[in-house]
Amino acid sequence: MVTRIRERTRYSCQVCGTGSARWLGRCPGCGGYNTFVEEVIESEPAGRPAATVRTPVPLRDVSLDATFRRSTGIPEVDRVLGGGIVPGAFVLLGGDPGIGKSTLLLQIAAHVSQQGPVLYVTAEESAAQTRIRAERLGVNNDRLFLLAEGDIRTIVAALQAQPWLMAVVDSLQTAYDPQLESAPGSVAQVRDVAAQLMRVAKAGCPIFLVGHVNKEGSMRPAA
Q1: If we measure between CA atoms, which residue out of 28, 3, 82, 2 comes closest to residue 11?
Q2: How is the beta sheet containing 19-20 ordered, strand by strand?
Q3: Distance between CA atoms of 83 and 78, rounded to whole angstroms?
Q4: From the centroid of its chain, how far is CA 20?
Q5: What's the pTM?
Q6: What pLDDT, in 10s, does the model give residues 100-153?
Q7: Which of 52, 146, 170, 220 could potentially form a cystine with 210 if both were Cys, beta carbons 3.0 to 4.6 Å apart?
Q8: Which residues contact 56 (CB under 8 A, 6 or more apart)?
């Protein structure tokens, strides 16, 4: 028996993410005009298995193994991170386009890869472009792996394929889920991509995510 997945339609503001069951000419959240776009959302099938029940544990019994912090190789970044990279960390690095976010994270990835495998995912540039930047920085390490891909399903599969010391995804606005009808960088896509990557990070792989700031000074999708 084939279980059909039901679909429903909703509308989201492409500036602030406010949702509505119907189209609105003006967003009640940010006041923007004509910012609502239609999104098709797939509902889970009725026969979906129940979630696994996890038993809460006393605070004193929680393992402290995850408190190990791995240095980024840059003291200023270590200080911002509270001493270094911890397992399960999910870090969003935001800034204007071209300010050097990708270069900074490539340097961090190269340093950490001296201790073990690191994955650098580029959804914006080609593999060759990233290789050129790496050579300019003097990065030449067999344990730094590159994946030029934007499909979040392929990215997640690569992240789960082996244990990585850390991973970089560049960027939040260009990675996408093809199952969503909205364009990459839209509110729905950004929300979905971030949620999928966070689940992977919380399983133990620290992830650094690049986010571009728009002309309004925020990382929200442009209207």
Answers
A1: 28
A2: 19-20, 7-13, 36-42
A3: 5
A4: 25
A5: 0.78
A6: 999 999 999 999 999 999 999 999 999 999 999 999 999 988 999 999 999 999
A7: 170
A8: none
Hey, what are 22's tokens? 């119907």
Does the domain formed by 63-212 have CATH 3.40.50.1110?
no
Question: pLDDT tens digit string along 109-121?
Answer: 999 999 999 999 9
26's tokens: 């003006």
Which residues in the chain are classed under CATH 3.40.50.300? Answer: 63-212
Tokens 């809460």 found at: 56
Q: What are the C-alpha distances in Å from 54 to residues 51, 57, 188? A: 9, 9, 29
Give residues with Cβ within 8 angstroms of 77, minimum separation 6.
104, 108
Q: Bigger pLDDT: 73 or 180?
A: 73
